[in-house]
Amino acid sequence: MVKIKNIKGRQVFDSRGNPTLEAEVYSDNGSAFAIVPSGASTGTHEAFELRDKNNNDYLGKSVFTAVANVNNLISKALKDIDLNDQSKIDKILIELDGTEQKKKLGANAILSVSIACCKLAAIENKTPLFKYLSKNKDYLLPVPLLNIINGGVHANNNLDIQEFMIRPENTNSFSEAIRRSFLVIQNLKKMLDNTNVGDEGGFAPNFKSNDEAIEIIIKSIEKSGFRPDKDVSICLDVAANELKQPKNIEYYLNLIDKYPIKSIEDPFAEDEWDSWNNLTKNTNIQIVGDDLFATNKKRLNRGINEKSANAILVKLNQIGTVSETLDVIDHAQKNDFKTIISHRSGDSEDTFIADLCVATKSSQIKSGSLARSERVSKYNRLLRIEDALGNSIKMAKI
Ligand code: PGA
Ligand code: ZN
After folding, report:
1. Which residues lie with the beta carbon below 6 Å from any ligand 1 atom?
2. CA dist 313 to 29, 69, 139, 370, Å?
3. Whose CA is nearest to atom 1 of ligand 1?
4. pTM > 0.85: yes or no
5. 183 CA to middle of ligand 1, Å?
6. Among the CATH numbers 3.40.1050.10, 3.20.20.120, 3.40.50.1100, 3.40.630.10, which is that of 133-395?
7. Band of residue 343 on the pLDDT scale cut at 50, 70, 90
């Protein structure tokens, strides 16, 4: 048994320059910290992010109340608890909060501590994080979904679809998946006059239409010597909650017919269950629930029963603890749903999600484009894991 000695919270900053929360957990021998990310297109079913709305020093965005919750209530409740017992740690946090959406302490306060405890436990066990997190001690590397053109609320342009992603298909290594992505991104860059990037590192110029953005990606795939669809496909995150003019099923069926699109996330708003079922029934591509499920087991269960999608986007801060996240992933996989582990548009140097992916054998990871350190850090962590495990680790099948 290794006891939690102390926990300290502090306000740091995320990739958008907004305040966020970092928790540092101490044992007798060491410490570990975790920084929580923050979304821009957040769903209403997500766990609650506590910010000091009335503190004008940081335009209402500071997290000092959440920091105080870590330093006082949480630190007291977890003192002397065994670091190796993640379920007990998370149970104490959930009960201490006592609300469905973690509104009392703030999901940001709770999650920062939950992840930091997990990281310190791995250090104390002298084992890499992905090994510590894995139940069966077998691993897979995820296929990356790289958001190479940013729109919606992540960019200052006229695209209403939020994310235009590429997915390298059938590579036998993670490094080859990244090499293909690198080439496509560099060739895309050459074709654009304006190469400014959005929140997730993808280019963010104005286009005439969503179609134009898709067509230029196809050209850059071809220019790189790859076959669209077979070698590199296109995946979209519509983030439909944010759409001013919602899209219908015909719009999507037409897009899927016309272009090498293999995955669509959040085609409809978070409570339009019937439309979700209708699209999933009428296509064989991947349909991903992000705001629809909000990494919440109850909502996922409804989606499994109603066949609303066939994949779930997993974001730790949508639910608020490591244990609940692992439980949702497990439940999804047992019901043949693909699991895609995801960053947030406001992220940091924290690479926990890379290890989470490998440990849970999740088929895909979403961490933005190959630009901006908070995005690339997750891909770099996966390259390191691949390098360390060599031939003994394979790519996940999609
Ligand atoms: P968010 O966007 O982090 O701004 O919510 C990511 C997504 O919608 O997948
Ligand atoms: Zn999304």
Report:
1. 39-42, 237, 239, 290, 342, 344-345
2. 36, 29, 19, 20
3. 39
4. yes
5. 25
6. 3.20.20.120
7. very high
